[in-house]
Amino acid sequence: MASTWIKGLGTLAVLGAAGFGTFLFITAPQRQDPAVWANLGEPDLAHGREVFFAGGCASCHAPAGATGDARLVLSGGAPLKSDFGTFHAPNISSDPEGGIGAWTLAEFGDAMTRGVGRDGEHLYPSFPYGSYARMTPEDINDLYGFMKTLPASDAVAPAHELGFPFNQRVVLGGWKFLYYSDAPRVELADASDMVKRGQYLVEGPGHCGECHTPRNALGGFLAGQWLAGGPNPEGEGSIPNITPGSRSMGSWSEGDIVSYLETGFTPDYDSVGGSMVEVQKNMAELPAADREAIAAYLKAITAVQ
Question: What is the pTM of this model?
């Protein structure tokens, strides 16, 4: 009996090790094909600036409370509280040691679109690569080119404050397996070029769904609830529904949305508040046509009550 029991434990151990090995293989960090980042040419810095503001890079990576040109010093450190712990945005300035100034375009692009760090590690999805995955290689090339023109900082951001098991990056492979996708969030039949542009901005660099879509206990988006609002991921208050089914914004016209993104004022002359203040500042830097495209997309998607 004892030998049979021992053999059984040995079999379970082998099966467990094989299963864990399979998990590691399936969920290993996956970089882009290097050809994706080849032959993109010199970046368009003016367009890179637009992508920078569309992506909201300064909102997380600039020093807390920074204003004016100080928002372009991407020294990191800003805390992002969540149910999983507190994340601290890293230094992504042009400094070659403290920041990402020495990274190649491929390394930067893999972080942006695959959530893979320079050393091949999984990145936490507090960095919204699940949205940035929809960005074009050309936009990422222009963005990185612009970011390298910004001031350098040698500041070192604090380490993430995460408990077990969230402090084990290996579990992120499982999260990606369940929730990572570079496919469009919604299918829009016969969409106009303006709506398609809005979809790209909202679902991609704008990463609007990261706050405006409710999540399950593992941090994945709830199916059928795209942009329907819900609890604030940072734990205070709520994030509004911005679909046409919204009680507060469903009656807004496209022009109302465009004006809000440009000026920060609602149709009732209330002003933008909370974390949306930084987002609105970024949206105001975009070309008017992009704000119009965002509005067109938000009025075209399915209403969620």
Answer: 0.89
